[in-house]
Amino acid sequence: TSGNGNAAFGAYALATNSTGSSNTGIGAGSLQLNTTASNNTAVGYQAGYSMTVCSGNTALGYQALYTHNAGAGTEHGRGRVCAPAWIAGLTEKIDQISIGIPPAVLP
What we know:
By secondary structure, the chain is mainly beta. It is built from no helices and six strands.
């Protein structure tokens, strides 16, 4: 690969990275499908699992930003901080911080 400055700790963390740089994956499967995205931090089991091209995100906790992805060349999802996983499916969002249980889950 040609990516630089990446750190992967855990089984399959950053397993498919090719040109993405300055990523940190801590936990089994964190940033597992990342290929070209850069400047991401994912901590927790499968955090940022399917982020392949989104850059500048922070995923904290079990499967946080698990399904988050945007098309190549877009700014969607940039600068997102996410904990926990429920917000993983949101798209077209920039500079978000989401923490806690979604209202639909509360009694």
